[in-house]
């Protein structure tokens, strides 16, 4: 018996789904499969391994490329994380610096207002002190003039001495 051709094998395999094979059909199918195996084995292992070896190399290269790409993405992610952390840190420092400047500006305005108030008070006190010194000087001049007045019983000179004594006691 000759082995079946590939068309006959397809026909036999198609019938196995619909009905049970007869013993002759079963033997023909078995012989056809064995002949197919023998023909594949006769072509040699080089033919069978060459496509699978090339396919294997291609798959390995694709895997390596995918791993390299994944590594690049991870490095870029870490770099982006570092950049993001640096940016957040710089922004926080700038905000703190800005808040510090604003606080100092607010304090500066407060201190300047205190300084202006103190300068105004000092100017007022200096003006008042100059006025008081001028009055005291006028009082001494008056006492000096009064000491030379001609008065009965020397009352004017007595008053001038008392006025000088009162002015001298009042000074610190």
Helix content: over 70%
Structure class? mainly alpha
Topology as H/E string?
A: HHHH
Number of helices: 4
Overall pLDDT level: 76
What's the total number of strands?
0
Uncertain residue segments: 45-50
Shape: rod-shaped
Largest sheet: none
Q: How many structural domains? A: 1
Q: Determine the N-to-C terminus distance.
A: 149 Å
Which percent range describes the beta-strand content? under 5%
Structural notes for this entry:
- It is a single chain.
- The chain is rod-shaped.
- It has one domain.
- It has 4 helices and no strands.
- The chain has 172 residues and is mainly α.
- The protein has helices at 6-16, 23-42, 45-147, 155-170.
List the helices and strands and how they pair.
Layout: H1 6-16, H2 23-42, H3 45-147, H4 155-170
Helix pairs in contact: 1-2, 3-4
């Amino acid at each position: 018996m000759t082995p079946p051709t590939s068309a006959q094998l397809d026909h036999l395999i198609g019938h196995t789904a619909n009905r049970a094979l007869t013993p002759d059909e079963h033997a023909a199918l078995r012989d056809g499969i064995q002949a197919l195996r023998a023909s594949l084995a006769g072509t040699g292992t080089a033919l069978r391994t060459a496509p699978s070896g090339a396919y294997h190399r291609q798959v390995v290269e694709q895997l390596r490329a995918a791993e390299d790409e994944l590594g690049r993405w991870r490095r870029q992610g870490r770099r982006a994380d570092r950049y993001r952390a640096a940016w957040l840190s710089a922004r926080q420092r700038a905000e703190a610096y800005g808040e510090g400047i604003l606080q100092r500006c607010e304090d500066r305005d407060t201190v300047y207002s205190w300084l202006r108030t103190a300068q105004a008070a000092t100017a007022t006190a200096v003006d008042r002190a100059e006025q008081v010194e001028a009055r005291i000087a006028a009082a001494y001049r008056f006492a000096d003039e009064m000491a030379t007045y001609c008065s009965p019983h020397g009352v004017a000179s007595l008053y001038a001495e008392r006025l000088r004594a009162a002015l001298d006691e009042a000074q610190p």
